[in-house]
Each structure stands twice: as C-alpha cells, then as structure tokens.
Design a protein that fits this description.
mainly alpha; 10 helices; about 0% strand
C-alpha cells in the first residue's frame, strides 16, 4: 500500500470517527452543548485532526444535514412541481418518517451558518433552482408559491410527528395535500360554516 493510500485510509477512518462520535453526542445532549474539545477528547483524536475535516462544528452539522436530506433532493430532481404535488408530499412524509431519532435531531439542530441557511432553506433553494420561475408567474410570485408549499409541508409534517403519527400515512398524505392545495376549503370546514342554521 502506497503512502498516499495509507493517508487516504487514515483520513476516511478519522472522518468516520468524527461523525460517529458527533452522532453519539447529539443523541445524548443538545447541539448547543457540544464542543470541539469534548468531541475530540471522546473520539480520541487531536483538534488538528478535526480541523483537517471541518472548519467548525457548524460545518460538521451542515454536512450531516445535507447528507440526510440527499434523498429529498433526489426526489425533487425526479418530480415536477406542481404536477406531482401529491407524490412530492407522499415522498417527503415517507423520507422523513423513515429517519431515525438521531437523524431527526440533527436536522432540527440550529447551527450558526454564515448565510443563516437552515435545512428548510436548502430544500427551498433546490426547488428554486429547478423552478426559477413557474409558468404564468414571475420570479417573486414563484418564490412565494414555493415558500408557501415548503413551509406548509414542513409545519404539517412536524405536527404529525409531534402527535405520534397517530393518523396513518395513507390518510395523512391526502389530508396534507388538500390542506396545502386548498387551505381551509380543502377540509370542508368553510362549507359547514356557511350552511344556514
């Protein structure tokens, strides 16, 4: 084995140690309470080794968040908005529901990114890259529509998750689709309120 192969193997081994140790720590405590000093001590590596891989804990966090979200980005690439909106909602629910508790905690952790980018922002950016301007809408209107869709989807999913996923996903996806596409009208609530006594 050449020297460069040995160095590459050592680099990949240290990368795995850093990520595995971070996942262990975030499973036990809040992200805000993790420090590079504690992580490197627990991983039994020196700080210089950590900085060969990541410029900061936020850099490590954002790398893991991007990795966790990669199936979502792939799904966005393979679907068409708004034609495939129910499929997008279904895939989003399935992808998020399949994550383990640590991945969910990593996604919800708030890093201090220079551009204030959050996982939700990254998903919106992927939509914007694909749909810079929706047919019949200018760029600003397209931005509002994509923001509305992604924020609503995120809020509805989080509420479903907090409620222990008590509604089966087969029922939740059509309900979420109706709410996002038709607002309160999609629930039939507005018709009930308009009915005469």
């Amino acid at each position: 084995m050449s020297q460069s192969q040995k160095q590459d193997l050592r680099y990949r081994k240290n990368e795995k140690i850093i990520r595995d140790t971070f996942r262990e720590m975030i499973a036990e405590t809040d992200y805000s309470k993790i420090s590079i000093k504690e992580l490197t001590e627990r991983a039994q590596i020196n700080r210089k080794t950590f900085y060969l891989h990541y410029s900061s804990l936020d850099h490590l966090l954002s790398s893991l968040q991007l990795e966790i979200m990669s199936p979502t980005f792939q799904m966005i690439a393979e679907t068409s908005f708004p034609d495939d909106v129910e499929e997008i909602i279904r895939h989003s629910f399935q992808i998020m529901a399949s994550l383990d508790a640590v991945d969910k905690k990593i996604l919800s952790a708030k890093g201090h990114y220079p551009d204030e980018t959050t996982p939700s922002d990254l998903i919106r950016e992927h939509y914007f890259q694909k749909y810079e301007s929706l047919p019949d809408y200018n760029q600003f209107e397209s931005s509002l529509i994509i923001t509305y869709f992604s924020v609503c989807l995120g809020v509805i999913y989080r509420q479903w998750e907090m409620n222990g996923q008590r509604i089966p996903i087969e029922e939740m996806v059509p309900l979420a689709t109706r709410l996002i596409l038709h607002g309160l009208d999609g629930t039939g609530l507005m018709k009930k309120n308009k009915e005469p006594d």
